[in-house]
Design a protein that fits this description.
Elements (H helix, E strand, L loop, with lengths): L3 E2 L5 H6 E12 L2 H7 L6 E11 L2 E11 L4 H4 L9 H9 L5 E10 L2 H7 L6 E12 L2 E11 L3 E2 L7
Parallel strand pairs: 1-8
Antiparallel strand pairs: 2-3, 3-4, 4-7, 5-6, 6-7
Amino acid sequence: MHIWDLENSSKEWDTKRQRSLYEKSIIKSTPLISFNLNIEENSDVMFIKRLRLVDNEPISLHHTYLSYDKFKEIYSSDRLESEQLCVLIEDEYGITPKKVLETLESMTTTEEVSQIFETEKGYPLLILEDIMYEEEAKPYEYSKVIFRGDKVKLKYEFNN
């Protein structure tokens, strides 16, 4: 078993990881999404679901919510599958996170996630929820990332 450090930026890491756009749609914001993005309920929200693979093995599943009104250009970007969202947002809008609120918890797989990760139901997972802020009270991205608990090492360092 190989544990991948997702913050590693070595050339070996870059050549082995891939992203796959699993789903994208415009949805109406739920109370939770509205609260986390500080927008009105039932606002148009871009939902992006991407699968990250290393050596063709599923490692993480990313669920991201962005205000559609604010980030319309990203929805049709041909870079959506190949680039990290933070890179697209910075390139297209000049926005970088000034504050990040993160929650990390453990749980086991659901039937859907077991199928995507090609594991048995009940497999260990790490769930990371992020809210990115461009200013203290201006969130712009809400995401939930599901990591295989047996394949990743998470390392965080925040500098501003």
